[in-house]
Design goal:
The protein has 346 residues and is α+β, with helices and mostly antiparallel strands. It is built from seven helices and 17 strands. The two termini are 23 Å apart.
């Protein structure tokens, strides 16, 4: 039996684990379960993408808006047997979800449960994640395609109802295990991850990998941004305006205005939110969020930049928290070539 190492680790340790082996983490966001034959009709009114062509036993990313058209949450929409599950990727509480669902026209026979009792999820990501996933299915794990969901078994809980989705948030191989035996599932995943040389990872290291993959919203959410400014227009079905909540408040994306942009700076500098970003001494944007310092080579910063400065390859500057002016450069995402791109599932 593999012993799970409980040695304290830094964000850099967790970052390296996800990049080089496999890291596990609990899904602490509130789960939402929808049941009933017309549940997809309800989801059509709540999400910015149509559910018309959603296949059984699949998972996709979806965006939900507030009434004013601003982003409410990025969600995973999982079709699992006769149920639909919504799993928030961005920070949102159960109370906020319940408030968001108030007033929704729920079709007859459809039930919506927020935080259904006895259900939970655990995820694991990294180039060795597939080897962990293989222990929860009775077929060759290479046969599970991206965004597919399959039945799974939980070692130590033979009667558990469990499903595994191949989906991630880091650019590395990723899987999510949803079950009615969450503690047993977590223990089984932790043990299997340890066998692959990995361990449970904390929020900072995970947030850094996600930010490098272009998923900064997982950590920071949407600090007052519109869909266009948050660079989330790709998650909207623009042919359905008027058919889903908040769509009447949307404005189509343009090449003007400001947009969320990734920048890098030499390691060691910290930039406060609201710090001005300058080009040749002229303010062209403001810092919104800096990712945790987990990659020792550089700092990763997200800023709201005016057009045309959100294009990659520009040299900019900002004053750090110590009062020193430091260089910044706009970059493309993903920032790092994931090891999973060259690691074969076998």
């Amino acid at each position: 039996m593999t012993t799970i190492d409980a040695t304290p680790r830094t964000a850099a340790d967790d970052y390296a684990t996800v990049r080089n082996s496999v890291g596990a983490y609990r899904i602490d966001a509130p789960l939402v379960r929808l049941t009933g034959d017309d549940r997809l009709s309800l989801l059509d009114t709540l999400l910015t993408k149509s559910a018309d062509f959603v296949e059984p036993d699949t998972v996709r990313e979806a965006l939900a808006l507030g009434d004013d058209g601003t982003p409410f949450a990025i969600l995973l929409h999982c079709e699992v047997g006769e149920d639909s599950w919504l799993i928030p990727r961005t920070g949102v509480t159960a109370e906020e979800i319940r408030a968001h669902l108030e007033g929704a026209e729920v079709p007859p026979g459809v039930t919506v449960e927020v935080e259904p009792e006895g259900r939970g999820a655990v995820a694991f990501e990294g180039p060795a994640a597939w080897a962990v996933a293989a222990g929860f299915v009775d077929f060759d794990i290479s046969g599970l395609p991206l965004h597919a969901v399959t039945e799974a078994t939980v070692p130590g809980a033979p009667d558990a109802v469990a499903h595994m989705a191949r989906v991630g948030s880091t650019g590395e191989y990723g899987y999510l295990l949803l079950s009615d035996a969450p503690e047993a599932a977590h223990e089984a995943v932790s043990a299997a991850v340890a066998e692959q040389g990995g361990h449970e990872v904390g929020r900072d290291g995970l947030d850094r990998v996600r930010a490098e993959a272009g998923m900064a919203q997982c950590a920071e959410g949407f600090p007052g941004l519109t869909v266009d400014r948050a660079d989330l227009s790709w998650m909207v079905d623009w042919g359905r305006l008027g058919d889903f909540r908040g769509s009447n408040g949307l404005e189509r994306p343009t090449t003007e205005g400001t947009r969320l942009t990734a920048l890098v700076s030499p390691a060691g500098g910290r930039f406060a939110a609201g710090t001005a970003v300058r080009a040749a001494g002229e303010t062209v944007g403001t810092v919104l969020w800096q990712a945790p310092s987990a990659d020792r080579d550089e700092e990763l910063v997200y800023a709201l930049l005016d057009a045309p400065f959100w294009v990659p390859g520009l040299d900019l500057a900002a004053v750090d928290e110590r009062g020193d002016e430091r260089p910044l450069a706009t970059v493309t995402l993903p920032r790092v070539v994931a090891r999973s791109l060259t690691t074969r599932i076998s």
